[in-house]
Amino acid sequence: GGAGPSPGLRLPPSLPSRPGRMAASLSLRAARRLGTPAGRAARQVVRLVPVRWLNLQEYQSKKIMADHGVTVQRFFVADNSQDALEAAKRLKAKEIVLKAQILAGGRGKGSFTSGLKGGVHLTKNPEDVGQLAEQMLGYHLITKQTTKEGVKVRKVMVAEALDIARETYLAILMDRAYNGPIMVGSPQGGMDIEEVAATKPELIFKEPIDIFEGIRQDQAFRMAANIGFKGPQQQKAAEQIQKLYSLFLKVDATQLEVNPFGETPDGQVVCFDAKINFDDNAEFRQKEIFSQDDVSETDPLENEAAKYDLKYIGMDGNIACFVNGAGLAMATCDIIDLHGGKPANFLDLGGGVQEDQVYQAFKLLTADPKVEVILVNIFGGIVNCAIIANGITKACRELKLEMPLVVRLEGTNVNEAKRILRESGLPIASASDLEDAARIAVASVPAK
Fold first, then answer.
1. CA dihedral for 438, 440, 444, 448, sign (positive or negative)
2. Geometric angle at alpha carbon 64, from 59 and 69, rounded to 5°
3. Between vectors from CA 127 to CA 126 and to CA 128, what angle results, nearest 5°?
4. What is the DSSP code (8-state) at residue 260?
5. pLDDT over 70 at 207, yes or no
6. What is the CA radius of gyration of the chain?
7. Fewest CB atoms within 10 A around its CB: which of 23, 70, 240, 374?
8. Report field, pTM of the whole predicted structure over 0.90
9. pLDDT (tens digit, 9 = 90+) per residue, 6-27?
């Protein structure tokens, strides 16, 4: 649940594709599916693939939905077992569900370092909630989507458990093919929507939305009918669909996925679980939402890099890659792998880089104990190579860099940049091209 690091909706080409927002991480994920050296390296060595979008826990997403009039289960959040017990009693529910709050999926089948099995538990006895929370909070939950160490659980959600008579699927997302938002629905919810799209495409319904007009009532009713709501429930489902679209716009979401969008035996229409992806370009006007960003499960180096507008992806090799642009990063990883080396990361400077960012980048790279060689590969289009060169010399002197440093620069102001490096008196190995840089970097790795 919640808006987490999951890529969310991954539909075949016949269905909408959601635009990615960090080319580097998306390229690396794509490379895993390809037979390139970087693809093979990615499969073998990636420790963590950070995705630069907002991470919200399930309870945070549910609160945002409830605040916008969307029907969700009643719930409380607790960070200790006593509060969890009191929350269970306050609910006065026939049945209670207790959920560990982590961003990774697969909680239900996970296991805790306390010995407890499962991060989601149902009970009719409020007293059980306190005992279960005791075995969750402060312990690590290990699932198929976490590292082998698992993720420390700091909060639990105590919610009213509702029976689901029928599960459907509903999503609203921005889609390039339609130049705007689109609704996607299916009467088969509560399961992997990709599988439904692949095996029963006739059960996937789409409704393009006019960005100026919004969802019309007839569209909401049609989608509600297409996903199986009838009678009074069709009216309720249509109302929920319109509220979800209103939420989608107000919070600057790029995707809102409800699975399951369910119906209870007593006729309620409830959003049982949702993922919301937000447009990080809208952070300036969504400060309250972005202040909730949960970075506790993200690589600390990536968090540090983000402070300086740097994109960092950690791997398990020993050659640090310092580049500008995701495509160049992938090519750099490929050619290092081709020459028998292993990338330790890639760190993407982006286009509007300044000297201080170069210095901070070197601090990040040298903070990784696995790094034994640094390879700088810059193609200066927007980037001024002289700024990079000044940043490199400053970083080398102030950090007293001792490991081998290989630099390949090309593009804007490159002759001035090469002069700065040449006259610095620093032990910097200059490379004539990318292949030369990779060859020198691999050869510079200290012999074991």
1. positive
2. 120
3. 90
4. E
5. yes
6. 25
7. 23
8. no
9. 333 434 333 333 333 333 444 4
Q: Which tens digits make up the pLDDT trace of 35-89?
A: 444 444 333 333 333 334 577 888 998 999 999 999 999 999 999 999 999 999 9
Q: Which residues pair with 97 in a beta bridge?
A: 122, 159
Cα–Cα distance, 45 to 318 (Å, whole number): 11
DSSP state, residue 247:
H
| DSSP characters over 310-355 | -EEEE-SSSEEEEESSHHHHHHHHHHHHHTT--EEEEEE--SS--H
H or E element that contains 37? helix 37-45
Residue type, 341: G
Kind of pairing between the strands at 373-380 and 319-323: parallel
Mean pLDDT for 327-347 is 90
Name the residue with tokens 């993200």.
Answer: 298
Q: Hey, what are 218's tokens? A: 């007839």
Please write down the HEC assignment for all residues of 407-439.
EEEEECCHHHHHHHHHHCCCCEEECCCHHHHHH
DSSP state letters, 345-370:
EEEE--SS--HHHHHHHHHHHHHSTT
Report which DSSP code applies to 299: -
